[in-house]
Design a protein that fits this description.
The structure holds two protein chains of two kinds. Chain A is α+β, with helices and mostly antiparallel strands. The two termini of chain A are 33 Å apart. Chain B is built from 13 helices and six strands. In chain B, a hairpin with a 2-residue loop joins strand 5 and strand 6. In chain B, helix 10 runs antiparallel to helix 11. Classes of the chains: A alpha+beta, B alpha/beta.
Chain lengths: 437, 282
């Protein structure tokens, strides 16, 4: 965790110290050179009773054979605060005695830098300023930072096991400041072997876990079972469903072209198949004709979409019945208004948030942080969150049938590094075009 | 013909490498290797980039740098077999579009979180207030302190021309002609696919060992792969509306959302997260 700056100083004419620079400075847009032998700096202070360290980021003017480093002394009146020899870009810490800063809003500093050089004396330059050190930025850091807080023994372990959804949940929880230092969230993939899955964990993470969230229906059954067995019996366990949605992409089916292409497309060139697109693979016609033919065939092949949705809902309700976290009603109530899935197996951020809202009701979490604080942090952390880099385009007929309010004609979808419309995706798929990530 | 084209470049070289790897005409014959000049260490020459690594290199795409050659560049030159064609190309960068890219004291302690500093947002880091108040203050200060962008542009053009002078591929005129119409940069050093496509097409044209593959076909494949590609947008820093106005950036959409790792943020979202040095998700 980085030290927290209590005050940020930015040198240069575009910075916030222009009024604080006294004699002996030459300011440019983003930095200020200390010129000559002395400079004066009226450092703004917070006016409180904390003890601070002044941290400055700077670089020296050096030239091999002429000057290998720049000396810098910082003093406040008669009090010597720091002396440095600076051979390259550096961050220097200057402890400020409390007597000089307590309840004061300004500290007058005298900087001494006796090794200034003139660029014109050693390089092809007309710059005749006597330059010593270039100051970039700085700040005040509380001297007490880095001490206190919880010891590792105080930190509660939470294990989140599963695939992409579980990884996202663990990543989100780990960023919530009310829980930081109190609960350590560990992601575990239930694949391969227990040893491989847990190699990166602290030794006591599983046996001492007090929270265990597991995404059901994913991973190697033996590994999942081994993780289940490794957490304490009195651990707070929540089972998380792995919802899919097929009604928005009902044309999935076999495509013989989909084979692994090692080094380029490990899961096949297009990992979500389209049986109508596959059936047109050998159609050597112009793009617009191919698209028209695709539209026509897709409409003919389109299954009963309401029945597809009913089937999805039935699966979600089954998941609700066998898990602790519920999703069916939420998805059904909101999928027209918000984007719930980016691809059949990829839940969007709204579903993620809905799941997390239920998980943070866990008593161990409620004991550490208030729901209102967590909700506020989650709002900010998840703002604009998309997560995945794959979005499977939705056939316009399907979007219109369901009245998807977030969909619009000509919408672009993220496909790894690409941005494609439905039509561009369909053509690429039909022609099995190469694409780059 | 088979072998590898060696790319010695910053992260822009990775874009060339990835695009090259997915070009159907070259699959199985010409590969692409990349030495990231900004990350290489002394030890890498003995381990990653040893004689075996170099053994199948049939041409080199070398990104130039102004100034004296670095020790790593000298090492590269010493290891290349005599007679190998080297096509030199410049790095692309655009400091002028992000004029407040200055200093932020938080970066020294936490360099990865927001690596594209904004000195005005840094100054607001400790200011209390609502989101609306902080963003309004940011817009007020940046509007008041907006530097002369034409001067900034001229400085960049001078840099581009200096790199062009060392290169076989020239970019300065093209960037200057196109940056208003087409977005070419996601950050001051990260490219959109349009910029990568321009450089790649010229490299393909000038590389002798690729002649048997039909340069026209290769350029067509590169164009197809990059036509709807977004480029290096895993970190895309929003453009200030006043910058867009002053520079007459016709591609600019004031409501645009920019990718930042796992998020799509507006300028306001980005600035508020940056000011607060807020965590985000991948």
């Amino acid at each position: 965790m980085a030290d927290r700056f209590e005050t940020a100083y930015v040198f240069g004419t575009l910075g916030n110290l222009s009024g604080a620079l006294g004699d002996g400075w030459s300011a440019e847009d983003h930095y200020a050179w200390a010129v000559g032998e002395h400079s004066r700096l009226s450092l703004p202070l917070p006016g409180d009773t904390e003890t601070y360290i002044l941290r400055l980021s700077l670089h020296p003017l050096v030239h091999p054979g002429r000057c290998e480093s720049q000396r810098l002394t910082i003093a406040a009146g008669d009090v010597l605060l720091g002396h440095f020899d600076v051979p390259h870009q550096a961050t220097v810490d200057v402890p400020l005695p409390l007597a000089l800063t307590r309840e004061r809003t300004q500290l007058d500093l005298r900087l001494t830098h006796p090794d200034a050089l003139r660029p014109r004396d050693f390089k092809d330059s007309t710059d005749s300023r006597w330059l010593s050190l270039c100051f970039h930025s700085g700040g005040l850091v509380r001297a007490s930072d880095g001490t206190g807080g919880n010891t590792p023994e105080d930190v509660m372990h939470a294990v989140v096991a599963g695939h992409a959804l579980a990884r996202q949940i663990a990543a989100v929880m780990a960023q919530l400041s009310p829980l930081r230092g109190r609960i350590a969230f560990h992601y575990v993939s239930p694949d391969g072997s227990l040893d491989a899955a847990t190699r990166h964990l602290p030794a006591d993470a599983l046996p001492a876990a007090q929270i265990y969230w597991r995404q059901s229906g994913v991973g190697t059954p033996e590994v999942a079972a081994a993780i289940n067995a490794a957490v304490p019996a009195d651990c707070d366990v929540q089972r998380i469903p792995s919802p899919h949605m097929t009604a928005l992409w009902p044309l999935q089916g076999a495509d013989p072209r989909r084979i692994a292409e090692p080094g380029r497309y490990g899961h096949g060139r297009y990992m979500f198949s389209d049986r109508v697109g596959a059936s047109m693979a050998n159609m050597m016609l112009q793009d617009d004709v191919v698209l028209l033919a695709y539209e026509s065939m897709a409409e003919k092949e389109m299954p009963d979409l309401d029945a597809s949705l009913d089937a999805d809902v039935a699966v979600w309700r089954q998941l609700d019945a066998t898990n602790d976290v519920r999703v069916a009603d939420f998805i059904l109530a909101n999928f027209r208004r918000q984007r719930m899935f980016l691809a059949p197996p990829l839940a969007g951020s709204a579903v993620l948030r809905h799941i997390i809202d239920q998980l943070i009701e866990t008593p161990a979490i409620r004991a550490v942080a208030s729901p209102a604080d967590l909700a506020r942090e989650l709002d900010f952390l998840l703002s604009g969150y998309v997560g995945h880099w794959q979005e499977l385009p939705i056939h316009p007929h399907i979007a219109r049938h369901f009245g998807l309010q977030w969909w619009q004609p000509g919408m672009r979808y993220r496909w790894f590094g690409n941005s494609w419309t439905f039509e561009e995706y369909a053509l690429n798929y039909i022609r099995w075009n190469a694409w780059r990530p | 013909m088979s072998g590898s084209i060696l790319i010695y470049a910053n992260c822009q070289g990775e874009e060339l490498q990835t695009t090259g790897r997915y070009m159907p005409a070259l699959a199985g014959t010409i590969g692409f290797k990349w030495i990231p000049l900004h990350k290489i260490t002394d030890a890498d020459w003995a381990t990653r980039y040893d004689a075996e690594f170099m053994s199948d290199v049939v041409a080199v795409w070398e990104q130039v740098e102004t100034g004296d050659p670095t020790p790593h560049r000298r090492e590269l030159h010493a290891r290349l077999p005599a007679g190998l064609q080297t096509v030199r190309f410049p790095p692309l960068s655009a400091l002028f579009m992000w004029p407040f890219a200055g200093n932020d004291p938080r970066i020294a302690a936490d360099p990865q979180r927001y690596p594209w500093p904004d000195s005005v947002a840094a100054m607001l880091a400790l200011q209390s207030g609502s989101d609306d108040e902080i963003f309004a203050e940011y817009m007020k200060i940046t509007t008041e302190r907006m530097p002369d962008l034409d001067r900034r542009l001229r400085l960049d053009v001078t840099r581009w021309q200096a790199s062009d002078a060392l290169s076989d591929v020239k970019v300065a005129d093209w960037v200057e002609r196109n940056f208003r119409e087409t977005r070419l940069f996601h950050t001051s050093g990260h490219l959109t696919a349009a910029a990568t496509d321009f450089v790649l097409r010229h490299l393909l044209e000038q590389t002798t060992v690729l002649r048997p593959y039909s340069v026209a076909r290769l350029k067509g494949e590169a164009e197809a792969l990059l036509r709807h590609h977004i480029g290096q947008d895993f970190e895309s820093v929003p453009i200030h509306p006043l910058v867009a106005e002053r520079l007459k950036l016709r591609f600019h959409d004031p409501n645009a959302r920019y990718r930042w790792h796992g998020h799509m943020w507006t300028l306001r979202d980005y600035i508020l997260h940056y000011v607060r040095w807020a965590p985000y998700l991948d």
